[in-house]
């Protein structure tokens, strides 16, 4: 039964009554008031509970960390427990540091430093350092991090020729260790089909022993072994407190029981609804196991939420309550209802990313910059779906950071220095030595290194011992070493031995970690190496080296304080139990390297002033975001296969994962589902969001963010409200103040439906689509920048053929168009005419022509292109055909605004010069209406009827312009209407009706008969004989 407030009067009756309390009692009262100040009723019950076994179930944002730290302070100040007899276990280094700072503010006097406080792994390491000799663990054991473990496993698999994957093997080993199953135990129970894995597991354990290393799981397992075999190591422990208890595995649960073996005083804080680490072997059933192990366990529920708006909590509660097996728990908001969360449908993953960016811009603008980039987070079920989002943020110029990027201590230049420190501190660390044996280059090739490590494994020795004995001549190596390799290994050995000598020096000659880092930087010529190896980002890498120096300098400063430095590591003395002594100078490097290995991530120091901190949107997995919060949270890709994940074994845990993601939001929450994923596959919205009645808790589009909504947003975030005038100006100045670009059904807007790429190549700016192209600034030489106003060719497609033409498309430079080509031909033609005129003046006598040449026509007459009518008398050799255009008609010159294909039609190409200035004035013609033409379905039995040739007076006959249509360009404009048939009167009287048309029995504008009937006396153009029809040749060629 849960402890209630009714216990308080009974406690008060046990206290003696005094009319005049003394000063110590007043101080105690003030201390108690300070301790309980700011706690709600449930939190006070949890802090002051007299129960030895207590479970505090705390949902998101309910102040569990504040409650736990107040409970620790209460045990010290009110119950009189000694801080060095209290163990507090957290799950992250960040949580441990935060808790220590809060306890310091409550109890003061440096008592927080005497607590055994840290992660499970760091607490276990402290016990192994102090008492590990009892189970055969050497003092300066190393810790194999994830990269070390993976390298060892990969090497074993490669050497044995196994087919198992290193990552899968490592995960399976960790799972077995979490269940306290060693390699020897597994070898006994294994199946025949698992022989490979069993061999890898056994060899991995042997490799760790040879290198004097413990991996993360070994720290817990060996500590549990120590406490089982030597329980007196924790005989002084009076209280154990555990944070995030729902994430503990079987070994951690056993450690909790072993820590509290004597006093049975345990307090845990957790929330079964936030158990999301099943893949990391977390056991949600540990809550039930605790109640069985500790009878009479009291349970207190924290129900008030101090993080999120009411609407967010209601929707999250609706999701988690779909699990009917969970115990019913209330979740009460302390803020207003706020805007309802958004559940948005989008057409594709790419459109989803652009919509997300537009919402960031829109909410920033409409809130009058109440929200900064740091206030936004994008939480993903899997990092694999981040590609489109990263691209959209980058294209829009929004800075972002990926949580879980390269850790500071994993950066190449930093890890190299740390590996040299590891070798100096513990030379048997094979993998650290392997990573730097030829860095910087010292002539030791890959073949030599492989031979040395194989030799070490055959002899069951460390790589360092093989190298050291070979260099010092104690033994002859089985690996053949070149002179260059021998010299390189000698230099390496001298570097390490000198560092060890500095580390173990006496008194003031003993080097600190900072001194060793300085020594390595100088001897390795690190600056020169980085400049040569990484010239593009040398400054950044060197800044990382400087940061590492600063951190070792902080450690050296802590060492100078002597006792305080030791106090935080040493365990309290226990009567009758010998403990290893820790020397601040000698063990400083060991402690420094151990803390690095156990640190999840140590970021660079940065100024705490938020105005000087770089603003960026956070992209993170939901797992990595646990325990964090942001004003605005986006959870994209909410479809089946993403959340719940396609490879998930526990659907209930996937639901809890979505619940955790939703409860990271303080004020605004967006969930979205694209109809097509990043691989263009059709999607189905997550069934967590399609249950009956859940739609009432979500909006289908982004919030409108009017002034009252922004004021509520400011209240929730505890920020100053923007001025009303600012909000009005912000809304009036923003082009799309509402989330209306995409239809609510998740389809593309009409403006994009006609595009072949569905708007993929359109940039999203300020919530609007803006058609852009890029241009280069030749003068500035700067980067390419987007320029608005360009209509891409894809805007006119085959779905909209009315506006399509080749000429209307943008043509890249250096590609010749028809118009530009004709301009070149006109220029050549003009030059040829001028030369012909000059030649005629020089030789006025007519050129004698052959008979065949006199009957030849120019090449344009073959294509049916006539000569142009002129006002002046044409050249005697020029002949024209009849035309329906009156003789007096003058065609106006097209305006300059018309396209080139209209104002500059194709001209005659002829070797007959003309002195007529109006030669190029060609009357417009009526275009042929191709869509109205019907193809013949019967055979062509007769020759096409041609126009009747009439003897004319060349001085009066107008020219004839044949209508042609160029399919790559729109037709020329409609000419003035004229009668279809017209009588042409020959000089001298008498009228005869002349046919001015041919029947449309063929698509061709000309025929062989037509060409043969033409009479022309123009000069030939590349033809040395008359052109005759096929029938005139008698069927013979040529």
TrEMBL record:
Ranges of compositional bias, category Polar residues: 904-915
Reactions accelerated catalytically: ATP + H2O = ADP + phosphate + H(+); Couples ATP hydrolysis with the unwinding of duplex DNA by translocating in the 3'-5' direction
Keyword tags: ATP-binding, DNA-binding, Helicase, Hydrolase, Isomerase, Nucleotide-binding
Span list, region Disordered: 734-754, 870-995, 1015-1038
Pfam families named in the record: UvrD-helicase (PF00580), UvrD_C (PF13361)
UniProt keyword annotation of Nucleotide-binding present: yes
Boundaries of every UvrD-like helicase C-terminal domain copy: 310-627
Positions that bind ATP: 58-65
Gene3D superfamilies documented for this protein: 1.10.10.160, P-loop containing nucleotide triphosphate hydrolases, PCRA, domain 4
GO cellular component, one term: nucleus
InterPro entries xrefs: DExx_box_DNA_helicase_dom_sf, DNA_helicase_UvrD-like_C, DNA_helicase_UvrD/REP, P-loop_NTPase, UvrD-like_ATP-bd
Domain UvrD-like helicase ATP-binding: 37-309
Gene Ontology process terms (BP): recombinational repair
Gene Ontology molecular function: 3'-5' DNA helicase activity; ATP binding; DNA binding; hydrolase activity
Record EC number: 5.6.2.4
Domain of life: Eukaryota
Compositional bias annotation for Low complexity: 935-947
Family matches, as PROSITE patterns: UVRD_HELICASE_ATP_BIND (PS51198), UVRD_HELICASE_CTER (PS51217)
Biased composition (Pro residues): 969-979
Family: Belongs to the helicase family. UvrD subfamily.
Protein name: DNA 3'-5' helicase
Species of provenance: Aureobasidium pullulans (Black yeast)
